[in-house]
Each structure stands twice: as C-alpha cells, then as structure tokens.
Specification:
Helix content is about 50%, strand content about 15%. The chain contains 19 helices and 16 strands. The two termini are about 50 Å apart. About 5% of the residues have low confidence. It binds adenosine-5'-triphosphate. One of its GO terms (molecular function) is sequence-specific DNA binding.
C-alpha cells in the first residue's frame, strides 16, 4: 500500500502526456496534486494557493532547448513567493541548466524521463524542508535576534593572528583598512568586526564604491534634498546617515576619483555630511571600515590616491592573505562549504576524496575563497556518490587555467566566458578593472562569474 504524504503539489508542464503520467503517479503519494498545462496561469495559482512544492517544466515548447522560459517562470514564482519550493523538471542532458536554476533559487531538479521513486523522494524532501523552514522562521521571528553572522573559517597561523588583531581593534572606534585580493573575505571580515564592536546593535551599511557611477556618488553617500536635481523628487537619506551610530563599510575605496576622495576626506574630518542641494551640515557618528584589493600605498606614491585620506582611513591595516598563502585552511573551508551545500541541496555527498584534497592543496585558487566556494557548490549539486572527486571540483577550474583563445567557433556563451577569463587574467583577477574593460558593472560581472562558474 502507498503512503500518502501530507503536502500540496503543483505540476506545470505543457506536455499533456507528461502531465497525465506525473499526476497519476503523484496522486497516489501526496494529499493534493494540482496540475496546469498553461504556464501563463502560474502567477494566479501561486498567488492564490499555498503549494508546498511546485514541479516546473524547464522546456516549454516556445523555447525548447535553452530553458529561458523556465528561468523566467522560476523568477516570477520567486518574486511572488520568495520562499516557494520549486523543483525543476528537465530533459536529459540539461544538467548544466539545472545547476544554474538551482543557483537561481530552485530547490532541486529531476531529469526526464524520471524514475518514480526518485521523483517522489525529491518532492517529499522539498516539502519537508519547506515545512521545517516555515517552522524555523516562525520561531525565529518570535526572538529578537540581531545579526545572523556567517562564521569566518580558518585555522592557519596567518588567519589566527589576523582574527586576533581584528578582535582587539573591533572594540575601539579606530578606522580600519582591510587589504586583500578579490574573494579573500574582506566583506566578511568587516561584518565580523562590526559584530564584535559595541555598535553591533546598530546598522552595518555596506557601500560598493566600485559600483557607484560618478553621478550617483554624492547622492548615494550623503543623500539629497527634494529638487536638488531633475530626478530628485523626494528627500533621500544617504548611506552615511543610515549608518549613524553603526558602522559603514566602504568597499573598493581604491577606485574613487580624486575629486570624490576630497569630498570623502571632508566628511571624515568634519564628522558631518551635507546633502546634495542643501547647505546644512548633519553630524554623523560612524565607525569607518574600508577595503580594497589594490596596492593603495603605491597609488598614493603615484598621486592616484590622496595621502591625507589614506592616513585617515588606515589607522589600523588588516591584510587578508590569499588562499594559496594559507594552504592549511583549504580543506577546512572546503568541508565547511560541503556541509552547507549538501544540506541546502539535499545531497548524500559527505566526504572529500583524498585525491581531491591533494589537488585542492596544490591548486593556487586565483579567485580565493569565492572560487573554492563556487567550485564546491557546483560539485555538490552534480555529485552522485558519497565523496567528491577531483573531476567534480576541477572540471571547470582547470579550463580557467588554460590559455584557451577564441577558437571555439561562434558559441556566444563560450565566447563570453573566454573574454571574461582573458580580462581577469589581464588584470590579475581585479574584478573592477576587468568589469571596466568588458563594459560591465561589477554586479553584472559577478553574475556572469556565477553563471560560468569562473
Ligand atoms: N574565511 C572564510 N570563511 C568562510 N567563508 C568565507 C571566508 N572567506 C570568504 N568567505 C566567503 O567567500 C565569499 C567571498 O568573500 P567576500 O565577499 O567577503 O570577499 P571579498 O574579499 O570582499 O571579495 P571582493 O574583493 O571580490 O569584493 C563569500 O561568500 C564569503 O562568505
């Protein structure tokens, strides 16, 4: 006899045969199974019914191969219900696409043609997770928890010393400059310092200066008054004011132009901001933490960065070592990410194979912890057995190291991937410079790095 699991399932697939077969199977296992052939009905259904899991086809007929329409529907569902559990239904050979979709917010995927037991188990898992999360968020909202911090993993002498210093200086209000390559954890360290400081009940405001256009710079940081310029229809509070009594983290400080450096210096000297269009100074009390991946001393020596501003921001300098300089941390980090992603994606994988450990320690991780994190995430999603092997983790990373030029024909995605790799190589992994060269914003480049698992 079949067990009927409590759970409301919605299946959306425009193939009538698939729909019929899936419905017949699932009705024997779940308490409610709705089905829909027309994806246009998705918004109505998702808004009006509370499904525990949605089984969504990725390959609607309008766009059979790329899954683009499936991605659009996935986005729409998550816009309407950010905590919806969506399992993708996708044709054989689409594993790459399914991986991307999981990164985009789906909870799992099932390949067509499906194995009955696998399909039921996947949906059952998704339902249980969703119900657990709903429970957890209910009890979470009853407690006044401030700041759910991600831990900083690392046991190497270099990291121990750094974390020790960070803990000591966190208690003071000294300005801190964090130096380190892309992906070494500068943002994470800045949050950590804020959490350890007496300001931890107050806001932590993160500003990516590298992503701010010149026109936005002042209004974003200092705010503006209504009518200050054509688009200023309302008063706007700037990021400094938002951070009042808390900490402000200015990332990519090495990327601002000399005139803006002068404006920032004035604010730091006066401890007050003046909104665009106003002449009234507003006092602000913030703890300043800055970061850059550039050689800022050298920039100052070349008069590209103001020496007086540098003196203001680097009362304490913390240097985050590159991952290749703290080999001892690689396995610990890999195991940490393995634990996170096996849980997130419900995978049975639990170990790093010995051969993988050796290769990971030998590899030089130009993208640092971020690269390691993405490599493990992807490997976990694709994993089949209990342990991760070198081929799972290094499948793409190895390609990155090859100096593959544009000899791959006219596959647009492949060309884009190659161009990104070349730009990163040219600027030694500096995201801001590479983004500039490619004509992309930093955020857009990050999205592509994620997409191509670079
Ligand atoms: N020591 C660590 N322990 C756990 N996770 C880490 C550690 N270092 C970095 N990470 C993770 O790696 C990713 C990149 O880290 P983060 O964004 O802090 O780097 P960054 O140096 O600020 O990068 P960028 O210069 O490109 O902005 C994040 O997901 C972060 O949580």
């Amino acid at each position: 006899m079949n067990t009927i699991h409590p759970g409301k399932v919605l299946i959306v697939d425009d193939d009538a045969d698939v729909l019929r077969a899936a419905r017949l199977l699932l009705k024997r296992h779940f308490s409610q199974v709705d089905f829909e052939k027309n994806p246009q009905k998705i918004p109505y259904l998702v808004t009006n019914f509370d499904y525990d899991v949605i089984l969504l086809d990725m390959n609607f007929t309008r766009d059979l191969s790329s899954g683009k329409e499936g991605f659009e529907w996935l986005d729409k569902i998550l816009d309407i219900k950010p905590d919806a559990a969506v399992v993708l239904f996708t044709a054989y050979g689409d594993v790459e696409m399914a991986v991307r979709a999981i990164k985009a917010g789906a909870v799992d995927f099932v390949l067509k043609p499906w194995e009955n037991e696998k399909l039921i188990a996947t949906l059952q898992h998704a339902i249980e997770n969703k119900q657990e999360q709903t429970q957890a968020s209910k009890s979470f909202s009853n407690k006044a928890v401030t700041g759910s911090e991600n831990p900083i993993i690392g046991d190497s002498p270099a990291m121990k010393e750094l974390l020790d210093t960070a803990a000591r200086v966190a208690e003071t209000d000294a300005n801190i400059l964090i130096l380190g390559e892309n992906g070494t954890g500068k943002d994470l360290l800045a949050r950590h310092i804020h959490q350890l400081s007496h300001r931890n009940g107050q806001p932590f405001v993160n500003v990516d200066l590298g992503a701010l256009s010149e026109t936005l710079f002042e209004s974003e940081l200092f705010g503006h008054v209504k009518g200050a310029f054509t688009d200023a229809r309302e008063d706007r509070t700037g990021r400094f004011e938002e951070a009042h009594q808390g900490s402000i983290f200015l990332d990519e400080i090495g990327n601002i132009t000399l005139p803006f450096q002068a404006k920032l210096l004035t604010v730091l000297q006066n401890r007050s901001i003046t909104k665009v269009g106003s002449n009234k100074a507003v006092p602000v009390d913030v703890r300043l933490i800055c970061a850059t991946n550039r050689n800022i001393e050298q920039m100052a020596a070349q008069h590209l960065f103001r020496q007086d501003l540098l003196y203001r921001i680097n009362t304490i300098e913390l240097h985050l070592p590159a991952l290749r300089e703290r080999q001892e941390d690689i396995v610990m980090l890999a195991e940490y990410f393995l634990g996170i992603y096996r849980k997130k994606y419900n995978r049975p994988v639990a170990f790093l194979h010995d051969t993988l450990v050796t290769q990971m320690e030998q590899y030089d991780w130009p993208g640092n912890v971020r690269e390691l994190q993405h490599a493990i995430e992807r490997a976990v999603i694709l994993s089949q057995g209990k342990s991760l092997m070198p081929k799972d983790v290094f499948m793409k990373s190895n390609n990155n190291n090859n100096d593959k030029s544009m000899d791959t024909g006219y596959n647009l995605e492949e060309m884009e991937r190659n161009m990104i790799n070349q730009a990163l190589k040219k600027f030694n992994g500096n995201i801001t410079e590479a983004a500039k060269e490619l004509g992309l914003s930093r955020a857009a480049l990050y999205r592509r790095l994620e997409k191509y698992n670079i």
